[in-house]
Design goal:
about 75% helix, 34 helices, elongated, 3 strands, about 900 residues, three-stranded antiparallel beta sheet, mainly alpha, single chain
């Protein structure tokens, strides 16, 4: 079983190594191809540093030799020059020196055959003989040492001490052989197989055997105590990491893995956290120094992850965890990041390098530790200052080392999650089974005045550091400046909101409103200060946009905290004017969008409560109630803001404000109508035909107003808005007037007044409005738009006349189920013919083909009715009069058209 497990591990390790080396082979082949093309072109080659993947597996002097070996020699120096350069580089460099390749001098073009001979393409034979043999051999040596120890145990050949001594000797011999090969002329491996660096593999195998030997001496035989075993394993790990300076990053990974796993291999009856984390601090610092010298990002990130995992494991599983130990190891992590890994060298400018991804790991683990210190009762009971100190430390290190921008995001997220967690009764995560609230299953810290003071402190930290850094980077690093500005407003706003919901008066709280007003002033002033540091100044980049956007959100909170719901809605709508007016002095792109955000906020506010002040406080007085200013003031403010933006920025925000003004103007009239039609109650009941008729008239009127405004101040929003209003009004008519709310189908009362009744409101007035809009928009909108409205006006007039006739015969209720009389039936035929003739006359007079077609359609319907219905239903004189009238009308229409055609022929 043991051998099978070891074999499986060996196969997996071999597969991983082979996959990694295949990628390196591809890189080397591409490099050789590029060099071959350069030589064939006759251009003088320039020395180029060897690929980082190759450097990770060979020593510094071998890397230099590989560079110089790629440069084609000049005539007469093909045998000597590469050796001379290698020796010079070896003499000038050491295991602790920074390696730089000297550029090769120009050389004449080489023939293609010579180039191909100098850089042969690796084949299967080379791979098997030089790479795979070395890899499998190294694994076999490591496993062989362990198998030897196991065999001697099973056979009882030697005693435990002798067996362990033999294993330790084998490990030391492998390390010594590796160092001997490196020091005695093994400079560069066979070209194309740089990954199979024999000294590094032998050293790794030796370190592997030494780890196993020390662990067996402690865990199996008990020859040494936990303290000595811990010290020996740690020393082996650190020494292996140090040896990586001359053997490559892969060996450093082996040493780091052994060093991090060491505390798990050594058990103690009385574990000492200071010894554990002191040891981890030493390993982390040593790894940081070595990784910094070789710029090994992956090794540094792995060291941070290993230390962070131990920290979180200790905080979650250790009983009675020591707070000072936690603060110590987090401080070490940040110190290694800031002073070792990101320490400047050679005048290197930090911000010029962009983003340092290994800093994500310390940001994540230190931020997680800070949150745990807030929410875990073991630490946060009565005192959350350590968590606040860690968050402030994250911000300070991010400010000190601009490359570590991940620390800023970690600090901001930790702050936001902690303060969202104190809001009752919500939290980041909830556990209703135990009646508790928590973050990741941990109960949130009790919200008290200490959390209030800490919130004030952290808010000031984010504001001061954020605006200072945003100003510093506003000229050259826009993304970094935007990140600092974003957290400088997001974190304080979340803290303010959480503290207000936890400690403040939710109805009206002037103290928190004053704090919000201070934030408005601070954010606006900070945005202006950042803008003056831009290049060129006052451009209003991302950082300025975040600052001014934060000021807008703070102003929204201020209004909600200081005023009631009715005043808040009006003032919020009126606040859209402020950024629009500000465009007179500053051309910041964000100003117009802040006005648009005010529109969105007011829409959300009235969607939450359409009554503005609450249904119980809304007056039943028509028109003059809270609805008029609640909807009307935002409509006027949005219109003024659109007008102002049209004279300054004139971009997309202006179009959005025009749309908002038009929408709220329509909503104002519509909500007042609904309020009046329902007796002063805004409810969700179904609309009546009378109410729907008013909505239709509003839609048609809005379309006409938008057309008129667009003619004076052209705008795509007004143009398409007018088209939308016309389409919506037609949809209302077809669906509601002709269908769902038609009194012919619902048997709704049409009123007792003969003329000014429901039919007049629901059919005749919309017909006149639609016809008037069609006539007004004939030359101002597409032909289909005017034709649609004209056709709808004709249909409304037809329905009004037909239903009025039925009301004349049936009275107030005209439902279909009351039947049809003969005289009523005849009247419909006569009426339809009269309307058809009227439409024909109007179509000729207005030169409208739509009306003429509508008249033809209506007369056709009348003809079908006479022949199909009247012939069977009417009797006596009514049947005769029906056909006589139809014939007379048809002949008259024919005569009318013949005269028109005759006049047209004479005119031509």
């Amino acid at each position: 079983m043991f051998e099978s497990l070891i074999g499986l591990v060996a196969i997996i390790a071999l597969f991983v190594i082979i996959s990694r080396q295949q990628s390196r082979i591809g890189l080397i082949e591409r490099e050789l191809g590029a060099l071959r093309s350069l030589v064939l072109s006759g251009a003088p080659p320039q020395a180029k540093p060897v690929d980082q993947a190759a450097n990770d597996s060979m020593p510094a002097d071998a890397a230099i030799a590989a560079v110089t070996d790629f440069a084609p020699p000049s005539a007469g120096e093909a045998e000597e020059k590469p050796l001379t350069e290698v020796e010079a580089a070896e003499a000038a460099s050491g295991p602790w020196a920074t390696v730089e390749a000297a550029p090769a001098g120009p050389a004449p073009a080489q023939p293609a055959a010579a180039t191909a001979k100098a850089a042969p393409k690796p084949d299967i034979e080379t791979a098997l003989g030089t790479r795979w043999a070395v890899w499998v051999g190294g694994i076999a040596l490591a496993l062989g040492g362990l198998f030897l120890i196991r065999y001697t145990i099973e056979a009882g050949i030697f005693g435990p001490g002798v067996r362990l001594g033999m294993a330790a000797m084998l490990g030391l011999v492998l390390v010594a052989v590796g160092e001997f090969i490196r020091r005695t002329g093994f400079r560069v491996p066979v070209q194309g197989v740089a990954g199979a660096y024999i000294p590094a593999i032998l050293t790794a195998a030796g370190a592997f055997i030494l780890f196993g030997t020390v662990y067996a001496a402690h865990g199996v035989y008990g020859f040494i105590g936990p303290a000595l075993a811990f010290t020996l394993l740690g020393a082996i790990g650190v020494a292996t990491i140090a040896a990586a300076l001359v053997h490559g990053q892969a060996l450093a990974g082996v040493g780091l893995l052994g060093a991090v796993v060491t505390p798990m291999l050594v058990a103690s009856q009385a574990p000492n956290p200071w010894a554990l984390f002191g040891y981890l601090a030493i390993v982390l610092a040593a790894t940081g120094v070595i990784a910094r010298l070789r710029d090994w990002k992956l090794l540094m990130a792995a060291a941070f992850v290993g230390t962070g995992l131990w920290t979180i494991l200790y905080m979650t599983d250790a009983p009675g965890a020591n707070l000072l130990v936690i603060l110590f190891i987090n401080a070490v992590i940040l110190a290694v990041l800031a002073l070792v890994w990101l320490g400047r060298r050679g005048g290197e400018a930090g911000p010029a390098r962009g983003f340092d991804w290994p800093s994500i790991a310390p940001g994540f683990f230190v931020g997680l530790s800070a949150m745990a210190l807030f929410v875990d009762p073991a630490y946060a009971a009565g005192d959350a200052l350590p968590g606040a100190a860690l968050i402030a430390a994250l911000v300070a290190v991010a400010l000190y080392r601009p490359l570590a921008l991940a620390l800023l995001h970690a600090a901001g997220l930790a702050t936001v999650l902690v303060y969202l967690g104190i809001i009752p009764p919500t939290s980041v995560a909830s556990d209703f089974s135990g009646a508790a609230l928590g973050v990741d299953g941990l109960p949130a810290a009790v919200a008290d005045t200490l959390m209030l003071r800490i919130g004030i402190f952290l808010g000031l930290v984010f504001i001061a550091a954020g605006f200072w850094a945003a100003r510093k980077f506003a000229e050259s690093a826009h993304i970094r400046a935007g990140s600092w500005a974003a957290w400088s407003v997001v974190a304080p706003l979340v803290i303010l909101l959480a503290l207000w919901l936890t400690f403040g008066n939710l109805d009206r709280d002037l103290v928190y409103a004053a704090v919000a007003a201070l934030l408005v002033t601070a954010f606006a002033a900070g945005g202006e200060w950042i803008a003056r540091g831009e290049q060129p100044p006052l451009q209003g980049g991302a950082a300025v946009s975040f600052a001014l956007g934060g000021a807008a959100v703070a102003a929204l909170l201020m209004l909600y905290m200081a005023f009631g719901s009715g005043w808040t809605t009006m003032l919020l709508g009126a606040a859209a004017i402020v950024p629009a007016l500000a465009t007179r002095w500053r051309a910041y792109p964000v100003l117009g969008w802040i006005s648009v955000a005010a529109v969105v906020a007011v829409i959300g506010r009235i969607a939450f409560d359409p009554t503005i002040v609450g249904a119980e406080f809304l007056s039943r007085t028509p028109v003059f109630n809270w609805l008029l200013p609640g909807y009307g003031v935002p409509a006027l403010a949005f219109g003024f803001a659109a007008w102002q933006l049209a004279h300054t920025t004139n971009g997309r925000p202006r179009l959005a404000m025009e749309a908002g003004a038009a929408l709220f103007a329509v909503l104002t009239v519509a909500i007042l109508v609904r309020h009046a039609m329902h007796g002063g109650v805004i409810d969700t009941g179904a609309a009546t035909l009378a109410e729907q008729a008013i909505y239709t008239l509003i839609a048609i009127g809005a379309g006409a107003i938008l057309v008129a405004i667009d003619m004076r101040s052209p705008s795509s929003v007004l143009r398409y808005g007018s088209l939308a209003a016309g389409v919506v009004s037609v949809a209302f008519i077809v669906i509601q007037h002709f269908g769902a709310l038609n009194p012919l189908l619902t048997d709704e009362s049409t009123g007792r007044i003969p003329v000014f009744n429901l039919l007049f409101l629901a059919y005749l007035l919309p017909a006149l409005a639609a016809g008037g809009l069609a006539l007004y928009a004939r030359d101002k909108r597409p032909k289909w738009y005017a034709a649609m409205l004209a056709l709808m006006a004709a249909l409304l007039a037809f329905v009004y006349a037909t239903l009025s006739v039925r009301r004349l015969f049936k009275g107030e209720f005209i439902g279909l189920w009351s039947g049809l009389g003969q005289l009523e039936t005849y009247t419909y035929s006569a009426l339809w013919l009269i309307i058809g003739v009227a439409l024909l006359t109007a179509g000729v007079w207005l030169k409208s083909q739509v009306l003429r077609v509508a008249s033809a359609a209506l007369i056709s319907v009348a003809v079908l009715k006479v022949f199909l219905f009247d012939m069977s239903e009417l009797e006596g004189v009514l049947r005769a009069l029906s056909f006589i009238g139809l014939g007379a009308v048809l002949i008259g229409i024919g005569l009318f058209y013949q005269r028109l055609l005759t006049r047209a022929a004479r005119g031509t």
